[in-house]
Amino acid sequence: MDEKGGPEDEAEHAAYLEQGRWLFAQACDFLLGVVSMKQLPPMDLPEVAFAGRSNVGKSSLVNALTGRKTLARTSNTPGRTKELNYFRLGPHTESGEGPALYLVDLPGYGYARETKTRVEAWTDLVMSYLQGRANLQRVILLIDSRHGVKPNDREVMSLLDKAAVSYLAVLTKADKLKPSELKKVVEATAAELKKHPAAHPEVIATSSVTKEGIAELRAHITALVPDLDMGSALAER
């Protein structure tokens, strides 16, 4: 692996992408919507959470990653999701063993019509979640590529820094920009991340429409699953 945690050569890169393709082709089931810390499931699986501004395309990205059209609900009304929505990704076996993880869809932030009380409630819920989940491997922080890093994104980055939770910046809606424009946004985002100690140095640009970056993001997430036995996994295909 290179210094950013990615593969070094073509053969390793192909295996890296195949690992992600395999895991995200497995069953992905909605478990529950959490509105209080008492409802959180046991910390028996590694966990990856998705965060982003309202209307950033979070639900569409989760659907694209898992290959489902309606796994995560999309809405024309920003700020609709108010719960921590839990999904279990991985094969179902009689023993219950095998590579699996929780995907957690966090409520969107930054919607202008939110009241101060609701913003504070979001912050309290998410901060309590971040500080209390020892199995949380990484937060996938989604940023609209058309707008780049906004003040609300920086606030959440600082919150993640404070909680000492590693996060990866993922640009959404990359198909809306020309390649030269996207390149500038990627570079600007990477420069912003250098200011934040908990940020992963890599930036992945994605599109739920063209599927750009989807394979890379699947592989990045899958690499966070400890002791993933690809030999056994591929043998089950």
TrEMBL record:
Keywords in alphabetical order: Cell cycle, Cell division, GTP-binding, Magnesium, Metal-binding, Nucleotide-binding, Septation
Transmembrane segments: none
Necessary cofactors: Mg(2+)
GO cellular component, one term: cytosol
Domain EngB-type G residue range list: 44-227
GO MF annotations, alphabetized: GTP binding; metal ion binding
Record carries keyword Hydrolase: no
Function, as annotated: Necessary for normal cell division and for the maintenance of normal septation.
HAMAP family: GTPase_EngB
Name of protein: Probable GTP-binding protein EngB
